[in-house]
Amino acid sequence: MNGNSEEITRSSKSNLALAFISLPKEKRQDMTSFYAFCRVVDDIADSAASSPEEKEAGLNAWKRCIHGQFPGEPALGMEIRRLIAKYDIPPEYFFEIIAGVEMDLRGAAYRTFEDLRVYCHRVACVVGLASIEIFGYQNPACRQYAVNLGMALQLTNIIRDVGQDFDNGGRIYLPLEDRERFGYSAADLGQKRFNDAFRQLLEFEAARAIAFYDSAAAGLPREDRQAMVAAEIMRHVYRRLLARMQSDGFRVLEKRYGLNKAAKLATVCGVLLSGALNKMRPARVQRKT
């Protein structure tokens, strides 16, 4: 549970941390604290060196942090309570995120997409809902934007990490109903079998992710586009990452996909430019309720 939030965020080398450069200094620092919390609880669940009992104890300690101060808590715990008070973030969001990583302690296996949606909502959509409170928004429709974007990002991660997740305790986030539809079994995944069934399965999941990306893009209120620049950087970076996997035939079992620095910089600059142009246009404002 220990560690400086900036060090935790910097060492993660996450695309999310990249998006923070678009934020004003104060919000950037606050998002760094929030991301550090997400990173720390996720690392507890993923730790190969800890027993299930140790992982559960670590996550329970974070629940106590959200409830209030306790002896020996890390500085990050106080930072998170400060964020909750400063931005009036529902504490339930933090408990939901912890509940999401707790699902990984029981091993990942989902029969239907609706089952998977619960997991995605907790570990990604709720992260988005908390983030937009820090970013600041005016139109309540921005909440659905955050949910759709969270689903899209998490599905992209699931596609990219399908082999790595299986190696980490046999986790399979691809719903059983989808695997049965295309004839690709857990045994096939365990043997790293790359065939037409696998490509068709991931093409199906990619189409689902793309639908969420499109819904997010269409649902972002004009008056909140400037405030959501960091989220839009994430949308464009991950959408581009998904397109790269798709064009390469989803060879995710043999390689780790990512964007190089030049591609990321071009994406960030494009979003920032678009945001600057949008700022020049008048917008009808609907207050948050």
Task: Describe the 3D structure.
By secondary structure, the protein is mostly helical. It has a single domain, classed as Farnesyl Diphosphate Synthase. It is 70% helix and 0% strand. The protein is built from 14 helices and no strands. α3 runs antiparallel to α7 and α10 packs across α12. It is globular and about 50 Å long.
**Number of DSSP E strands:** 0
- Straight-line N-to-C gap: 35 Å
Percent strand: under 5%
CATH topology: Farnesyl Diphosphate Synthase
Write the element-wise H/E pattern from the N-terminal end onward: HHHHHHHHHHHHHH
Q: Into which percent range does the helicity of residues fall?
A: 55-70%
CATH class identity: Mainly Alpha
Shape: globular
Keywords:
mainly alpha; 289 residues; single chain; 0% strand; 14 helices; Farnesyl Diphosphate Synthase; 70% helix
Question: What is the secondary structure topology, with strand pairs?
Answer:
Blueprint lengths: L4 H8 L2 H5 L5 H22 L5 H16 L7 H13 L3 H15 L7 H23 L6 H19 L1 H6 L8 H7 L3 H5 L5 H24 L9 H19 L13 H19 L10
Helix pairs in contact: 1-3, 3-5, 3-6, 3-7, 4-5, 4-6, 6-7, 7-8, 8-12, 8-13, 10-12, 12-13, 13-14
What's the gist of this structure?
Helix content is 70%, strand content 0%.
